[in-house]
UniProtKB/TrEMBL annotation:
This is Uncharacterized protein. The keyword Metal-binding applies. Residues 1155-1174 are annotated as: Disordered. InterPro entries: Fumarylacetoacetase-like_C (IPR011234), Fumarylacetoacetase_C_sf (IPR036663), Fumarylacetoacetase_N (IPR015377), Fumarylacetoacetase_N_sf (IPR036462), XnlR_reg_dom (IPR007219). Residues 80-174 form the Fumarylacetoacetase N-terminal domain. Belongs to the FAH family. Signal peptide: none annotated. Residues 741-984 form the Xylanolytic transcriptional activator regulatory domain. GO terms for biological process: DNA-templated transcription; L-phenylalanine catabolic process. PANTHER family: TRANSCRIPTION FACTOR WITH C2H2 AND ZN(2)-CYS(6) DNA BINDING DOMAIN (EUROFUNG), TRANSCRIPTION FACTOR WITH C2H2 AND ZN(2)-CYS(6) DNA BINDING DOMAIN (EUROFUNG)-RELATED-RELATED. The lineage of its organism: Eukaryota, Fungi, Dikarya, Ascomycota, Pezizomycotina. Keywords: Metal-binding, Nucleus, Transcription, Transcription regulation, Zinc. One of its GO terms (molecular function) is zinc ion binding.
C-alpha cells in the first residue's frame, strides 16, 4: 500500500511522518476488525475508493460472528445424527434448545409431543442445555427417537414456526460449564511435541499408565465463530535461556485440534467412577480448539503448568452430538503398551474409540490450506477413561463440565493436530505459527450422515501489535526522493490494512487539507491510498504505474461526439478525425466470464439470508465518468478502453492459451437442494418430481468428469441437488413449445450419463444463484468433451437418439448463455448434430412409421408399441427443436441457416395429449379418442409450410402450437432471404436495381400478406402462445428494416462505417417502410409485456433488444433531422401514435401518411428494477415519443426485468447483459 501526503506549510518529512503516525496510532487503537467498512462508504465527497475484494479459493467465507454457522455441512446432520444445541433467531429471540436436520433448525419448545410423558417443555425453553443434559440418558434417547420419527414420517406435520433455516439462526454455547479439564490422549502428539521442544521423541513416564491432563478454566470458553485476539505476555525473544526476555503480543499463536465430552448426569463429591460406567455420565460430544500461545507457555511452564499461554481461549462447536449417533462408528482402541498394566478403574473391558475423521483448514486472504487430516482412532486413551481419571481424586462431576482429549494427532506429518508439532526443534523448516487474519476451521465427520459440523475462529492480531508493525513499516520505507512533505509506504496486503490507512487519512481532513483516495494497483492483491493536499506538487505518474482506473472513458462522454460527427455533414476538404472514437458494439450482448477457481466460493449456497445484491447480481462491468466533454487528445485512450468493453464483440479476440478448464480446476459444490426462491422457471411448473437418481448415476458422473478433465473435486453435488436440477430442466422442457424429451419413458438407469450431466447443466441455467449456473457452465464443457469422445470411440453412437440429444442440449444452452467464449463455441458446434440428423434420415418421412395401438393389444404389446412410438416421436421433435433453434440463431446473429424448410419432409408432431401421456394405457386411450376410424396419416411438415390452412382441415389432432411455430420460422427463412437480396440490390448497379426492383417489391408484398394472414389465424386461436405472435411481429419488423444497417450506424464498426451507412438510414427513416417497421417493433413490445413470467429470455430477449434498437435509431435520426432543419417536432405533430397499442385510425394514418408523433406507453418500473424512466413533458400522460431515447431504452429494460419478478440471485446472464446495455445506451444524449 502506498500513502502519499503533502502538508501545506510543512516541509519536513519527519514532521509529515510524525503527523501520519499520530493518526495511525489513533486509527489502530480505535479500529475494530469486526466492524464493517462503513467508514469507507461514508467518505467525503471527492474521495474515490476502489478496494479489490479478495475471494477465498475454498467454500469458507468467514466473518467474526459468534454463533454463525458456515454453509456446506448439511450432510453432517442426517436423520441418523439429530444433535442438540442452543440457538436464537428473529422469530425466537430468546436462546433455547434446538436440534438440526440437514440445514433445518428445529426449535424443540414448539413441539409438545417430543416430551409428552417424559418431562416438561420448560427444559427446551432454557438458555442452556444443562437441565436437559442432567436428565437420564434414556430420556435423551427417547426425545431423539421421536424427532427421528417425526422427520421420517411427515416433516410437514411439524409446526411452521418450529423450523428455520440454519442461516437464520445464531448459535450459543450449548451448556454452562463449571470445570474444564484438558487431557493428553494421543501418543503421537506426545512424541511429536517432545521432538519439537527438545529434539528427542519421548513421552512422560506416566503417559501409558494413566491419562495425563491439566485443569483449565471456563471463563474464556467461546462458541464457534468468535474471533481470537493475540494475547500479551512475556517470553524469550530468541533461544530460551540465551536471549532477552521481552513483553508483547505472542508471536507463536497455535491451535489444538481436540474432541470434548460434556457431562450430563452429575457425580457427587468423593464418588468414584469406573471407565466402564462413564458412558452413562456423558451427555454428548463436541469439537474443541484449545488455543495456545507457545512462546508464553514455554516461558511460564518452569516449573509449574501453563497459565496465560493456555487461558486465552477455548472454542467449542455449537452442536452436541449424542453418543447413540456415534455407536456405529466405534472401533477397537490401539493396543496397550506391553508390560504396562491397566488399572481396574480404567479398564472398560474391550476398549473402544470413536472413529472420527477430523480436519483443519487455515484460510487467509491469499489462499486456503488444509493443514491436518487426522482421526480420533489414533488416541491411546478414551474420553470415558479420562472421565474416570478426573473423578479419581474425588472432585466429582457437574452437568456441563467439559472433558477434552488434548491434541488429536496421527503418526504422519499431515496428521499433526497443532502447528507446534511441525517445528521439530528447528531440524526441518517450520511451517510457522498463525498469522493475523488467518481463520482456523475444524470439522469432524464419521459418515452416513453423522458429523460434528464446523468449529471456526478468525485469528485477530492485538491492536498494539498491529500498531508496532505499522510504525516499523512507515519508518523503514519513507523515501527521501519524493517531494517535500510526501511519504510512500509499501504496506501489508489486505482490506484490513487498507481500512486502517483510510481511517488515518480521513482524520487528516480535520486539518483543512484536500484529500483524495484511489486504488493504485487495481486488480492485484495490494491496496493503495493516496492523500493529496492543497498546493501539493505534481505527482510523478511512475509512482502510480498500474492504475488502470485513471482516465477511464464512458459512453456518456464518447457517444455525443460520435453521433455528432456521424450526423453532421463534413465540410469540404475535411476528413475524418484522427484517433477515431470507437463506440460500444451494440450487436453484441455477451460478456467475458472468468472461471477462476477463486471465484467458486460456494459457501453462500446454504446461507440465503447472506445473499446480498452485490454478491448475487452480475451486471456488466461499467466504467463511468461525469464529464460531459471529452478532450480529443484522449480519443485514442477512449478507443482502447472501449475495446475492453464486455460487449465489444468485434474487437474481442479469444486470448491465447485460454480454453476449457484453463482458468478453473476445481468443482466444489456443497448445496444440498435448489432453493425455490432462485428458480427462474415458469410459475405454472410447480415442484414436480420426474427424475430419481441412484448413487451409481452420481458415481458415473464423477467418473466422466475425472476422465475428461483435470478438474479436482473436493465435493460434488448431492443426489438431491442433481435431481433438482434435472427436474428443473425437464419441467421447462415439458412447458416449452418445442418440448423434445419424453419424460414418461425417461429411465435414469438406462439414460446416458452424458445426457444426465447435460440436463444438470441445462437446469442450472434456470437458477438465478450465480454459483449454480457457473457450475452448469463448467459441466457444459465436460459434456462437450465427453460426448465427443463417445463419437470418436464408436461412430455408431451418432445414430443414438440420446447422444444427439446431448449434443443439441449443450449447444442450445450455450448459445443463450450470455458469455462470449461459450456463445462462440456453441454456435460453432451446431453443424455436427445437424449432420448426424441428416445422415440418419431424420428429416425424411421414410424414417417414421405409423405405430397404432388397438383395443386388443395386451399390456406387453402395448408397452412395446408405446416405447417405440415415444422414441420415434422424440426423434421427430428433436428435429423440430433443432430447426427452430437454427432459425432463431439465424435471425438474431444474422447468419445463414443450416437447415432449409425444404428438407422438412418428416410428419407433423402428434398432439400434446399423446406426447405427455403418463403410461401406455393413457397413450392408447388418448389415441383412440382423437383418431378417426379410417386413421388417416399425418401430413408432412413441408405440406403445412406450403399451405398453413391445412392445419384447420386436419381430422386428427396435432400439436397446433408447435406447428404454428414451425410455420412461422419457415417464413423466417424467406424473410432472411429477402433481406439478403435487398443487401445485394443495394450494392448492384442502377440497371440491375431497375430490373430486379419490381420483383423484389412483389416479394415484399407477398411475404407481408402471408405473415399478416398467419397472425390473424393465430390470434383467433385463444390457445396459441404469446411467443408465436411475438415472432410474427418481429419478422414483419425485419421485413422493413436492415438490422445490419441499424447496428453499423449505432457504431458496431466504428465512425467511418457509421458515416457511410448514415445516408441510407436517413433515407429509410423518411420512408413509409420505416414507419411500418417501428409499428411492428412497438407491437413486439406489446407482446413482450404479455409473456408468462420468466419466459422472456434467450431468443425472445434478444429479439426485444433488436426491436428496441430500431425504435432508438429511428427516433434519434428523425429528431436530429428536425433539429438541423429548424422544424420543431411539436409543430408538425397532429396526434400521438401509440406504437405498442392496438390498431387505430392514428396508427394507420402514421404508417401510410406519416401523420402524428410515434411513441410508446410508459411502462412502470418493476420492483427489482433499479433504473428509472425519466418524467419529461412528453410522458406525463402515459406516453412519450421516440425522440426521448432514454425512455425507449428504460422501457425495454423495464420489460425485461419485469418478466423476472423479485429474482433473488439476479437476472439470467444474457437478460442481465441486455438490460445493462440498454441502460447505458439510454443515458446517451442525442
Amino acid at each position: 500500500m502506498f500513502i502519499l501526503g503533502h502538508f501545506e506549510g510543512i516541509h519536513s518529512k519527519t514532521r509529515a511522518s510524525e503527523a501520519i503516525l499520530g493518526y495511525m496510532w489513533r486509527a489502530i487503537r480505535t479500529f475494530d476488525d469486526t466492524k464493517p467498512s462503513a467508514d469507507i462508504d461514508r467518505c467525503p465527497q471527492g474521495w474515490k475508493v476502489d478496494l479489490h475484494q479478495h475471494a477465498y479459493s475454498d467454500r469458507i467465507a468467514m466473518k467474526s460472528t459468534p454463533g454463525a454457522c458456515l454453509p456446506g455441512y448439511a450432510s453432517h446432520f442426517g436423520i441418523a445424527n439429530i444433535p442438540f444445541g442452543i440457538a436464537s433467531s428473529p422469530l425466537h429471540p430468546q436462546p433455547q434448545c434446538v436440534s438440526r436436520f440437514e440445514d433445518n433448525v428445529i426449535f424443540l419448545a414448539d413441539i409438545q409431543s417430543l416430551v409428552d410423558g417424559l418431562c416438561s417443555t420448560v427444559v427446551f425453553s432454557l438458555p442452556t442445555l444443562n437441565d436437559f443434559a442432567a436428565l437420564p440418558r434414556k430420556i435423551h434417547q427417547e426425545v431423539r427417537r421421536r424427532i427421528q420419527q417425526l422427520l421420517a414420517q411427515d416433516p410437514s406435520q411439524l409446526p411452521v414456526n418450529a423450523l428455520e433455516h440454519i442461516s437464520a439462526v445464531q448459535m450459543a454455547l450449548p451448556v454452562r460449564s463449571g470445570d474444564f479439564t484438558d487431557f493428553s490422549c494421543s501418543a503421537d502428539h506426545v512424541l511429536n511435541a517432545s521432538e519439537a521442544m527438545t529434539g528427542s521423541r519421548s513421552h512422560p513416564p506416566s503417559f501409558y499408565h494413566q491419562p495425563v491432563g491439566y485443569a483449565g478454566r471456563c471463563s474464556s470458553l467461546d462458541i464457534s465463530g468468535s474471533a481470537q485476539e493475540r494475547p500479551l505476555g512475556q517470553f524469550w525473544a530468541g533461544k530460551p535461556g540465551n536471549s532477552e526476555i521481552v513483553f508483547g503480543p505472542s508471536r507463536c499463536m497455535d491451535y489444538e485440534l481436540e474432541v470434548g465430552a460434556l457431562v450430563g448426569k452429575p457425580l457427587g463429591r468423593r464418588e468414584r467412577l469406573l471407565a466402564k460406567d462413564a458412558a452413562e455420565h456423558i451427555f454428548g460430544f463436541v469439537l474443541v480448539n484449545d488455543w495456545s500461545a507457545r512462546d508464553i507457555q514455554g516461558f511460564e511452564m518452569s516449573p509449574l503448568g501453563p497459565l496465560n499461554g493456555k487461558n486465552l481461549g477455548t472454542s467449542v462447536s455449537p452442536w452436541v452430538i449424542m453418543p447413540d449417533a456415534l455407536i456405529p462408528f466405534n472401533t477397537a482402541a490401539m493396543p496397550r503398551k506391553a508390560g504396562v498394566p491397566v488399572r481396574a478403574y480404567l479398564d472398560g473391558g474391550q476398549p473402544r474409540i470413536i472413529q472420527l475423521q477430523v480436519h483443519i483448514a487455515l484460510t487467509s486472504e491469499e489462499a486456503t490450506e488444509t493443514v491436518c487430516r487426522s482421526n480420533t482412532a489414533y488416541m491411546y486413551w478414551s474420553l470415558e477413561q479420562c472421565m474416570a481419571q478426573q473423578a479419581l481424586a474425588g472432585c466429582g462431576l457437574q452437568t456441563g463440565d467439559l472433558i477434552a482429549t488434548g491434541t488429536v494427532s496421527g503418526p504422519d506429518e499431515e496428521e499433526h493436530g497443532c502447528l507446534m508439532e511441525y517445528m521439530k526443534a528447528g531440524t526441518t523448516p517450520p511451517r510457522g505459527y498463525l498469522d493475523d487474519g488467518e481463520t482456523i476451521v475444524l470439522d469432524g465427520y464419521c459418515g452416513e450422515g453423522v458429523g460434528f459440523g464446523e468449529c471456526f475462529h478468525p485469528n485477530r492480531g492485538h491492536y498494539d501489535h498491529r500498531l508496532r508493525r505499522t510504525l516499523k513499516a512507515l519508518r523503514r520505507h519513507t523515501e527521501p526522493c519524493l517531494p517535500k512533505g510526501c511519504i510512500r509506504v509499501p504496506f501489508a496486503k489486505g482490506p484490513m490494512s487498507a481500512q486502517i490507512i483510510l481511517y488515518a487519512i480521513k482524520k487528516l481532513t480535520t486539518t483543512n487539507v484536500h484529500t483524495s483516495v484511489r486504488c493504485v494497483a487495481k486488480g492485484s492483491t495490494e491496496y493503495a491510498a493516496a492523500a493529496e493536499f492543497e498546493n501539493a506538487p505534481a505527482i510523478n505518474n511512475n509512482d502510480f504505474s498500474g492504475d488502470a482506473g485513471i482516465d477511464c472513458m464512458t459512453f456518456e462522454s464518447t457517444f455525443p461526439e460520435f453521433f455528432e460527427q456521424v450526423m453532421i455533414p463534413l465540410e469540404s476538404g475535411s476528413s475524418t478525425f484522427d484517433n477515431v472514437v470507437r463506440p460500444p458494439d451494440v450487436s453484441n450482448f455477451t460478456q467475458d466470464f472468468s472461471f477462476n477457481a477463486s471465484e467458486f466460493d460456494f459457501s453462500l449456497l446454504e446461507d440465503p439470508a447472506a445473499w446480498t445484491e452485490t454478491q448475487l447480481q452480475h451486471p456488466l462491468n461499467k466504467q463511468t465518468t461525469t464529464s460531459a466533454e471529452v478532450s480529443r487528445s484522449m480519443a485514442e485512450s477512449r478507443s482502447e478502453a472501449l475495446k475492453r468493453s464486455p460487449w465489444s464483440w468485434n474487437h474481442w479476440v479469444p486470448p491465447s492459451g485460454v480454453g476449457a478448464f484453463a482458468e478453473h480446476n476445481e468443482l466444489n459444490v456443497d448445496e444440498d437442494r435448489v432453493n425455490a426462491a432462485n428458480r427462474l422457471t415458469t410459475p405454472r411448473s410447480g415442484q414436480v418430481s420426474y427424475c430419481s437418481l441412484e448413487q451409481s448415476n452420481r458415481d458415473q458422473m464423477i467418473r466422466i468428469i475425472t476422465k475428461c478433465t483435470a478438474l479436482s473435486m473436493p465435493s460434488f453435488p448431492t443426489l438431491q441437488l442433481l435431481e433438482d436440477l434435472i427436474n428443473v430442466c425437464l419441467l421447462e422442457d415439458s412447458h416449452a413449445i418445442d418440448s423434445h424429451i419424453h419424460i414418461p419413458t425417461l429411465d435414469t438407469q438406462n439414460t446416458r450419463t452424458e445426457l444426465l450431466l447435460a440436463m444438470v447443466a441445462r437446469g442450472a441455467a434456470f437458477i438465478s444463484f450465480p454459483p449454480i449456473w457457473k457450475m452448469g457452465m463448467m459441466l457444459q464443457d465436460v459434456v462437450r468433451y465427453a460426448i465427443g469422445e463417445e463419437f470418436e470411440k464408436d461412430n455408431s453412437v451418432t445414430r443414438e437418439l440420446q447422444a444427439v440429444q446431448v449434443s443439441l442440449m449443450w449447444v442450445t444452452t450455450g448459445v443463450w448463455s450470455g458469455f462470449r467464449r461459450t456463445v462462440e463455441i456453441s454456435a460453432s458446434f451446431l453443424q455436427p448434430p445437424v449432420t448426424m440428423l441428416g445422415w440418419s434420415n431424420a428429416f425424411s418421412r421414410s424414417q417414421y412409421s405409423d405405430i397404432l395401438p388397438t383395443p386388443e393389444d395386451s399390456s406387453e404389446v402395448l408397452d412395446q408399441k408405446w416405447l417405440a412410438w415415444s422414441e420415434q416421436e422424440a426423434r421427430k421433435r428433436l428435429v423440430f427443436h433443432t430447426f427452430l433453434h437454427d432459425s432463431q440463431v439465424m435471425l438474431v446473429h444474422m447468419r445463414p441457416p443450416l437447415i432449409s424448410p425444404a428438407q422438412m419432409h418428416l410428419p407433423i408432431p402428434a398432439s400434446r395429449d399423446l406426447w405427455l401421456a403418463s403410461n401406455a394405457h393413457a397413450w392408447r386411450s388418448a389415441f383412440l379418442a382423437e383418431t378417426p376410424a379410417e386413421g388417416k396419416t399425418m401430413p408432412s411438415t413441408i405440406n403445412i409450410f406450403s399451405d398453413p390452412e391445412l392445419l384447420s382441415r386436419l381430422e386428427r389432432p396435432t400439436d397446433k402450437s408447435l406447428c404454428y411455430m414451425l410455420i412461422v420460422h419457415s417464413m423466417a427463412h424467406e424473410v432472411f432471404e429477402y433481406r439478403q437480396q435487398a443487401q445485394m440490390l443495394q450494392h448492384a448497379g442502377k440497371r440491375r436495381q431497375r430490373d430486379k426492383g419490381l420483383s423484389h417489391m412483389s416479394k415484399l408484398r407477398d411475404l407481408y400478406d402471408d405473415l399478416t394472414t398467419l397472425l390473424t389465424s393465430v390470434e383467433t386461436d385463444s390457445s396459441s402462445p404469446t411467443e408465436i405472435s411475438f415472432v410474427l411481429e418481429f419478422l414483419m419488423m425485419l421485413l422493413h428494416v436492415s438490422l445490419d444497417d441499424i447496428q453499423v450506424f449505432a457504431g458496431r464498426s466504428g465512425e467511418d462505417e457509421a458515416r457511410k451507412v448514415y445516408p441510407q438510414v436517413r433515407t429509410w427513416t423518411q420512408d413509409a417502410e420505416s414507419r411500418r417497421a417501428i409499428r411492428h417493433a412497438g407491437q413486439v413490445f406489446q407482446y413482450a409485456k404479455k409473456f408468462e413470467k420468466t419466459r422472456l429470455r434467450d431468443f425472445y430477449a434478444v429479439a426485444l433488444y433488436h426491436s428496441t434498437l430500431v425504435l432508438w435509431v429511428w427516433g434519434m435520426v428523425t429528431s436530429g433531422i428536425s433539429r438541423q432543419s429548424g422544424v420543431s417536432e411539436s409543430s408538425k405533430a397532429q396526434a400521438r401514435v401509440l406504437l405498442d397499442g392496438p390498431e387505430s385510425r392514428s396508427t394507420k394514418a402514421f404508417v401510410q401518411l406519416g401523420h402524428g408523433t410515434p411513441g410508446l406507453e410508459v411502462t412502470p418500473n418493476p420492483p427489482n428494477d433499479t433504473s428509472a424512466i425519466p418524467r419529461t413533458n412528453d410522458n406525463v400522460e402515459g406516453f412519450y415519443s421516440l425522440s426521448n431515447s432514454r425512455c425507449v431504452m428504460a422501457t425495454a429494460a423495464a420489460v425485461l426485468r419485469g418478466n423476472f419478478p423479485h429474482p433473488k440471485g439476479g437476472l439470467p446472464p444474457l437478460v442481465g447483459n441486455l438490460a445493462s446495455l440498454l441502460d447505458d445506451l439510454g443515458t446517451l444524449p442525442t
